[in-house]
Structure formats: C-alpha cells, structure tokens
DNA sequence: AGTGTTGCGTTGTCCGACAACATGATGATA
DNA sequence: TATCATCATGTTGTCGGACAACGCAACACT
C-alpha cells in the first residue's frame, strides 16, 4: 500500500488575503466598525502589489464582511440577518425554485413559528403590527405592489418578534421569496387585498389573546389562501418563480 | 419643504462587470456549464484592462456564480443548496448567534418538517437512512467528531427527503450550525452517542410506519435531548457558538 | 454663518511585463 | 504502431509603475 498524499494546495495570494482578513475578523482581532488599512498599507503588510490586494478586497466586499464608509475606506462589518437573507433568497431564486417549493416551505415553517411568536410577542411589537395593519387597511391603494409589500412586511414583523437571529435569517429569506412570487400573481387576483386583510386581522386577534393554537391556525389558513391565489391567477405552481 | 434627491450613484467598472455577467446568467443567455471567455477576451469585449476585469471576476467567484474548471477557466454555475447553506451558516455563526438560538430554531422547524418528511419519504431514502444509522451503530467509534458527523448527517438525510430545495437550503444551514455547536460540547457528554442512537432509531421506526405524529414527536424529543447535552457539558446556552 | 479654493491621501483604472501552469501538438523511442 | 518525452502555445497569477477622479479637511474669503 502506497502512502497517499493530499493534493497540496497552493492557494493564490489574493485568496490568502481574503482568508487572513476573514480570520482576523472572526477571531475578533478586527472589530466591527474599525477601518481596514488603506490598500497601500495592506500591500506593505502582506508584501503584495495593489492589484493582488484589491482582488482579495473584492472577495471581502462580496462576502459582506467589509463596507464602504467615509472617504471610500473599507470598514469591518459583520453581516446582519438582512444581508444573509438577501443573498440566500437571491441564490435560491436564481437556482430556479418553484412556486410550490416556496409555498410549501412557508406552510411548513410559519405555523409552528407562530407558537413561539405568540409567547414572545411584546406589547410594543404587537401594537406596531396592529398599526401597520391599520395603515394598510386605510390606504385604499390599488397598486398591487403595495399589497405585496404590506403582506411581506407583516411576515417580517412576525419573524422579528421571534427574537432569534437564526430563525429571523431563515424566515427573512423566505419572506423575500414569497414577495418575489406574490409579485407575479398579485395583479391577477383582485380580491387578494381583502383576503389578506382579513387573515392578518384574525392572526393579530389571536396574538393579542395569546392563543398559540389560534395564531398557528389562522396563519396556516392565511398561507393556504396565498396558494389559492396562484390558482386564481392561473399560474402553474410548479413553475420557477423567476 | 425642500425636494429630496436620490444620491446619484456611479458604480465602478468592476462592479458593472459583475452586474452584467450576473444578468446574463440570470437571463439564461449564459447557461450553466458554459465557459466564460478568457480574461483577455473579456477585456476586449468590455473595453477594460485585465486588472479591472479580474476584480469583477473575483466578485462572481465569491458569489458562487462561476467555478474554476479545466485549464483554470471559469465555468458558469448556478449555486446549489449546499453553497447557499454554507455561506448562510457561516455568516450567521460569524454574526455571533448563540447556542440557544440555534437550538430553538431546530426545535421550531424540524418537528413540523417531519410530517412532510414522513409523507414524502421514499423507500430508497429510508433504507439509506437506516443503513447510515446501522453503520453508525456498528462503528463503535470513540471519536467525538464522528458522533457529530453522524448526527448531522442524519439531519441532512431527513432534509433531503423533503424534496424541496427551499426547505433543504434552510435546513442545511441549520444543520451546519448544529454541527458547529455540537462539536463544542460533544467531548464532554459521554452518553451522547447512545442517546443519539436511540433517538434516531425511534424516528426511523416512525418513518417506516408512516406515522407523522410519532415522527414529529420523537424528533422533538431528540432535539430536546441535544439541549440536555449542553447542560451536561455545562456550557452557557446563551454563549455564542463561535 | 456660508461659500470658494487648495492640497493631500485614497481609490479606480490603465499599461506593460513575466513566471507558473495546463493543454495539445510534435517528435523520439521502443 | 504505440508509448512516452518534449516543446509551443494560451491562460492565469503576480508584479511594478503611472495617472485621473474623487473625498476630505483646512484654509481663505464675503
């Protein structure tokens, strides 16, 4: 038996730049908000040329680990749930997921999240939700886009009430996807606004009376209703959302 | 009241490269698997120099939209759920989520996913799960790392059985996080292996008899058990997993 | 106060160059 | 003829230096 050697990796220098800086951020050596050295300084410290260092910086940029700040300098930034959700949902949408997959995920996750949301919902958040709901009701907008925005925002507020960044990130991704998919059918479903309003109202009532089962129940109904919207709009539920 | 103007943005050329190529991939003009033009060709086509084009390529690379293939060329690639999950979980872990947040998400999502998994589980997948389970049982490994791997793989197989890429991507992120968090406590929980084996066995039984409620129930128990592991290992559940 | 001006540091882009490497063609050898 | 070594070519990774555009701060001016 011969000894097997690992294919020794010689990662390009620009990747090393990325890895080193990422590790420093991870380890806490580079704290959030501090400015990265200028490109010229990085060149000195790494012993590389600007072209190479800059390629590494592009990787950091795309990874959302740094952010352009004052004077175009880079500042360290830990990606927040919104960034994570945005890139996740973008990749998924791009990957060609179907209406059905999005809907089913919604149907699987949200009702069970509602139990937690009901327990953890603060009075402050609840009144915020109620306010948004009322604003949506009173703004008698005919613009389908506004309806989608209001529907998605409702989900966002619920997700935020969970006080859990992991759940939040996952549900936010989902919310973006549901927004993208709703946008494609909302124009053809005239009664959508009323149905959404009614569903939200029932869910809010359940939240106010701290009734976990009712909250779950009406959320499931709400999501089921969204599915009916696809049928009304006559979109094939197995079509890709993009 | 003064009129407010949008801050007019002039994106740098390397970003334009990224956006243009991304749009081409999205629109389908660049199909998966086809090779990107060489850097020199891209320079000609965009009217830019290699340094600039390469910065754009680094963005595409980090976004997982292209992949190095034969002869180091770039090939178009739509990100699959594994890539999405990896970057999602990495960002979250980096964002400093706690053991409790990860655990709570598991507890919220998996039991309700089990109902769907039970319905959709194919005989083939089920026997695959059973095989892995038996292999884990018979490999009387003492290596804590192997135990974690087996536990995570079990979750992965369940998630895969859902036949839903959105759910899969979300649960995969979660699986990576649970792996990372388990790795930190498994060494201090000597009975973990047995408890995990027993839990898996019960879940598999429920899956075989197509009993959704039992599957949900034992999965909830399983996850609850994982939480007990944190207590045994005396880790503060509100600590960050990294 | 508010408004030019000037200067400096930094980033965005360009040019040209070369070594390292993979691929495919060429040629030598059995 | 088949196999293997060698070389030419194309592509990427890295380098060095260069310059324009831009942001910021300090200053001078009204």
Structural features:
homodimer, about 240 residues, mainly alpha, 10 helices, elongated, DNA-binding
Category from helices, strands and their pairing of chain A: mainly alpha
Q: Please tell me what the overall shape of chain A is.
A: elongated
Mean pLDDT of chain A: 92
Radius of gyration of chain A: 23 Å
* Largest interface: chains, residues each: A-B, 47 and 47 residues
Uncertain segments of chain A are: none
E-strand count of chain A: 2
What can be said about the biggest beta sheet of chain A? 2 strands, antiparallel
Write the layout of secondary structure elements.
The structure is a homodimer of 242-residue chains.
Chain A: H1 13-27, H2 39-46, H3 50-62, E1 66-68, E2 74-76, H4 81-94, H5 99-120, H6 123-138, H7 144-160, H8 165-183, H9 192-208, H10 212-232
Antiparallel strand pairs in A: 1-2
Chain A binds a DNA duplex (30 and 30 nucleotides) through α3.
Explain how this protein is built.
Two copies of one chain form a homodimer. With 242 residues, chain A is mainly α. Chain A is 67% helix and 2% strand. Chain A is built from ten helices and two strands; from the N terminus they run H-H-H-E-E-H-H-H-H-H-H-H. Chain A has helices spanning 13-27, 39-46, 50-62, 81-94, 99-120, 123-138, 144-160, 165-183, 192-208, 212-232, and strands at residues 66-68, 74-76. In chain A, strands 1-2 form a two-stranded antiparallel sheet. The longest helix of chain A has 22 residues, at 99-120. The radius of gyration of chain A is 23 Å and the shape is elongated. Chain A binds a DNA duplex (30 and 30 nucleotides) through helix 3.
């Amino acid at each position: 038996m011969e000894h097997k050697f690992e294919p020794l990796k010689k990662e390009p220098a620009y990747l090393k730049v990325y890895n080193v800086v990422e590790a420093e951020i991870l380890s806490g050596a580079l704290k959030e908000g501090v400015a990265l050295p200028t490109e010229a300084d990085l060149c000195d410290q790494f012993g590389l040329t600007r072209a190479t260092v800059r390629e590494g910086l592009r990787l950091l940029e795309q990874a959302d680990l740094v952010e352009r700040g004052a004077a175009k300098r880079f500042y360290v930034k830990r990606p927040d749930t919104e960034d994570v959700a945005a890139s996740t949902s973008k990749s998924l949408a791009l990957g060609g997921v179907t209406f059905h997959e999005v809907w089913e995920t919604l149907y699987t996750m949200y009702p069970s999240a509602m139990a937690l949301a009901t327990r953890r919902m603060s009075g402050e958040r609840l009144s915020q939700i109620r306010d948004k709901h009322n604003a949506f009701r009173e703004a008698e907008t005919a613009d389908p886009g506004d309806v989608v925005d209001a529907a998605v925002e409702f989900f966002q507020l619920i997700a935020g009430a969970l006080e859990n960044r992991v759940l939040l990130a996952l549900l936010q991704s989902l919310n973006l996807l549901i927004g993208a998919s709703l946008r494609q059918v909302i124009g053809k479903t005239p009664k959508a606004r009323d149905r959404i309003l009614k569903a939200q109202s029932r869910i809010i009532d359940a939240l106010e009376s701290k009734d976990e089962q009712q909250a779950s129940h009406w959320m499931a109904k709400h999501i089921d209703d969204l599915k009916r919207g696809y049928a009304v709009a006559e979109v094939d539920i197995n079509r890709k959302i993009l």
